[in-house]
């Protein structure tokens, strides 16, 4: 089954604006993680939020988790051109394997 | 500490040829995972090693794909024969397991022409 379905699929904003991406999942989770993939490069772990946490911050990143709605959001504040990338949420299933969604393509125009 | 290393970073092969991807996990990480992102779609799990044993290979698409992890160190993923739909980015990740997070490699971009 597919977890971590993101929306929007693509987002285009101006530098300095905030970007919000949402993720929904289907089953119970221990944690939810957000990753970034710059074009043609590897996956970079951004932030992990545990199921008993509601909000977490890391620099310009803010993640929320609503387990009652099985949803999470990633907010990037004061976006930069370098934030242009694909963003994925992922949940953990049996064996600690990650289940990723389709991702949101973020484009920050300078 | 060295990260997860994957090579080659990019491979272009013809349909029907064989390609072997390699992943060197972080030293001491028993768990090694392979994932791939095909045609800009979602990232999908392929398989999971714990040391040299295959813990879960439910994501392997078909028998053209063969993964090994000799001695529980580095892992290889061989595609034989490669098909056009195998094109994509293949990621490897390792972890200590449990609550510890993953570290992903930079990926191998495979292009089958």
Walk me through the structure.
The complex is a heterodimer of chains A (about 110) and B (about 110). By secondary structure, chain A is mainly β. Helices cover about 0% and strands about 55% of the residues of chain A. In chain A, the strands form 2 sheets. In chain A, strands 2, 4, 5, 9, 10 and 11 form a 6-stranded mixed beta sheet that branches. A 5-stranded antiparallel beta sheet of chain A has the order 1-3-8-7-6, with no helix packed on it. The radius of gyration of chain A is 13 Å and the shape is globular. The model of chain A has no long low-confidence stretch (mean pLDDT about 90). In chain B, the strands form 2 sheets. In chain B, strands 2, 4, 5, 6, 9, 10 and 11 form a 7-stranded mixed beta sheet that branches. The model of chain B has no long low-confidence stretch (mean pLDDT about 90). Classes of the chains: A mainly beta (about 110), B mainly beta (about 110). The interface of A and B includes residues 40 and 96 of A.
Q: Main β-sheet of chain A: number of strands, strand sense, barrel status?
A: 6 strands, mixed
Give the helix/strand class of chain A.
mainly beta
**Total number of strands of chain A:** 11
Structural class of chain B: mainly beta
Mean pLDDT figure of chain B: 92
Strand content of chain A: over 45%
Percent helix of chain A, as a range, is: under 10%
- How much of the sequence lies in strands of chain B comes to over 45%
- Gyration radius of chain A, rounded: 13 Å
The share of residues in helices of chain B is under 10%
Order of helices and strands of chain A: EEEEEEEEEEE
Shape estimate of chain A: globular
Please report the total strand number of chain B as a whole number: 11
Low-confidence segments of chain B: none
């Amino acid at each position: 089954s597919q977890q971590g379905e993101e929306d929007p699929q693509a987002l285009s904003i101006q530098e300095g604006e905030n970007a919000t991406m949402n993720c929904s999942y289907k089953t119970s989770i221990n944690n939810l993680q957000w990753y970034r993939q710059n074009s043609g490069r590897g996956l970079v772990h951004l932030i992990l939020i545990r199921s008993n946490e509601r909000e977490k911050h890391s620099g310009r990143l803010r993640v929320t988790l609503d387990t009652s709605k099985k949803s999470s959001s990633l907010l990037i504040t004061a976006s930069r051109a370098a934030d242009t990338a694909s963003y994925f949420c992922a949940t953990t299933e049996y064996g600690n394997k990650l289940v990723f969604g389709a991702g949101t393509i973020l484009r920050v125009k300078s | 500490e060295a990260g997860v290393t994957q090579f080659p970073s990019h491979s272009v092969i013809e349909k029907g040829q064989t390609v072997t991807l390699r992943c060197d996990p972080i030293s001491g990480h028993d768990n090694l995972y392979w994932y791939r992102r095909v045609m800009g779609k979602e990232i999908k799990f392929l398989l999971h090693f714990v040391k040299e044993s295959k813990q879960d290979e439910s994501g392997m698409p078909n028998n053209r794909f063969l993964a090994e992890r000799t001695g529980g160190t580095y892992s290889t993923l061989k595609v034989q024969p490669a098909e056009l739909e195998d094109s994509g980015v293949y990621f490897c990740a390792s972890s200590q397991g449990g609550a510890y997070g993953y570290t992903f490699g930079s990926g191998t971009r495979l292009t089958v022409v």
